Amino acid sequence: MARELNRLSAAFVKSAPVGKHADGGGLWLHKRPDGGAQWFLRVTVHGRRREMGLGSLPHVSLKEARLHADMWRAVAREGKDPIKVRQRQRREAERDLHILQDVARDCFESRKAELKGDGKAGRWFSPLELHVLPKLGKVPIAEIDQHDIRNTLAPIWHAKAATAKKAYERLKVCFRHAAALDLNVDLQAPEKAKALLGAQRHKVQHTPFMPWEDVPAFYASLNEGTVTHFALRLLILTVGTRSRPVRYIRMEQIEGDLWTVPADLMKGRQNAEQDFRVPLSEQAQAVIADALPYERDGFLFPNVRKGVISDATMARLMERRGLEARPHGFRSSFRTWCSEATDAPWEVAEACLAHNTGNRVERSYKRTDFLDRRRELMQRWADYVSSAI
Fold first, then answer.
1. What sections of the sequence does the record tag as coiled-coil (predicted)?
2. Pairing state between β 258-261 and 254-255
């Protein structure tokens, strides 16, 4: 039987003439006229003859061809089609070779509709792009374990805790997405990595804010008539909108003393579902009128070259003046003023800042945004901050 199965020799294989030469047990060597040679195996499964290639010379030697033949003959004896089994194995191998960066991008694309502005700002993807993909992007996601994740996030786990947490959360979503794609991933790997990383030793740093008593003097100092000065004044006067809506303000959003901020410019998933109405004080309307000559491409606060001024433009102005406070901090200045210098109801002050109040059930029954009461409070704030002019 051994002789019947091993008819060929290595020397013969090397110099075999053109034609098909049997090694026994269905294993054949096909020597082509062009000098190439191919191994193939013939087996019978369920009464049907199947012929499958096993590779070519010299990449597959006689010894290797016999080993492959033994393996696939065993599969055939089990009543399985060796060609279909191999095809399935290859599909599974290709499936498991999906690298993380491809899975992450596919995951991002499928979630764009859930993100503000369809994720164009890149905030969802950037933690992965900056801190995970440079190290793990080209690794098949099926091969990534908790140690890989731990080693990747460890350098920023404490030093950049907020960013690390976002990267970790995005990675968890990517692993769930991979599982939905039927990839062979360890869904527990991120959780196990978090256990290895331990609790974050990071103290939350709130944005430094200017004491409300100092705001009028700072507001008065913004008197150079530049785009940056106008933008900062409007930001202070309309504290509920944050920097992004102010920088992207367009005249078409304003009607009378009402500025309607598009939902996609508002922060937060809840706010992103509806526009936000901002009552404009007399001072805010005056700032808009003064800034109108600078309008370009529909934007009231354009950048020197293209687009709109950046968030850093206003922050750098305050930094150059040696101030610790930053533009976002005027929200805290306003809220503290409301608490210490006015009798404004808590829910009205919170509504000025576009904060959601109450639980989900309470919000579902609330049908007011306190526009008229906010209009009165914002005018009081404007009168106060402009009192030093």
1. none
2. antiparallel
